[in-house]
Write a structure and sequence with these properties.
three-stranded antiparallel β-sheet; five-stranded mixed β-sheet; Nucleotidyltransferase, domain 5; 8 strands; 2 domains; elongated; alpha/beta
């Protein structure tokens, strides 16, 4: 992956399949970012045209901070989207998606699915069994271990620790807890 260069034009490759969408943000053929997302069940029953249009609008929305004010190219494997700006918009869905693209400077190009492999691979999301996604994690806090190690080497800290143990009444603001000197409930450091 590469870092974006705002002097160069951006390209978005999109693909939508029955289960999800896959999009890639590129510059000069180098990927900048990837994005894939499964379709909600209601959208999965939509036409291929709507799925592809949804993928385009999701990609533009996802990377709007890169695309606003810059000319970019959208590459799709759905031939009728190539004519999106010149065709008659007939359905409310088309109006909604086209409105999401207003204000951007873009052109749409067609590329066959065989030549659009990166986005195509991202759109083919495997079905996951939710029980396989369970993980167990435990925090491993090494801070206290490292603090003990460092304080054991510090002579000033060791002197303060010994003075508190020997003359507790003279050090009323200090306490010892797990071999850590606390002053008014907070860790004391030399």
């Amino acid at each position: 992956m590469a870092l974006p260069d705002f002097q160069l034009p951006f390209t978005i490759e999109t693909d939508a399949l029955g289960v999800g969408l896959g999009v890639v943000l590129l510059q000069q053929g180098h990927p900048i970012a990837y994005y894939s997302k499964p379709f909600p069940p209601k959208l999965q029953r939509s036409s291929t045209y709507v799925l592809e249009l949804f993928a385009v609008t999701m990609a533009v929305k996802k990377w709007r901070q890169y695309l606003l004010g810059h000319c970019f190219t959208i590459i799709t494997n759905h031939h009728s989207l190539k004519e999106l700006l010149t065709q008659v918009i007939q359905t409310p869905e088309q109006h909604m998606y086209l409105a999401r693209l207003m204000g951007y400077d873009y052109q749409i190009q067609y590329r066959s699915g065989a030549n659009n492999q990166e986005a195509d691979a991202l759109s083919r999301l495997p079905e996951h069994d939710p029980s396989l996604l369970l993980t167990l994690s435990m925090p491993c806090l090494t801070f206290m271990e490292e603090l003990h190690t460092q304080l054991a080497k510090d002579p000033e800290y060791q002197h303060q620790c010994q003075a508190i143990q020997d003359f507790l009444a003279a050090h009323s603001d200090f306490t010892l807890s797990n071999n850590i000197v606390l002053r008014k409930g907070r860790i004391w450091l030399p």
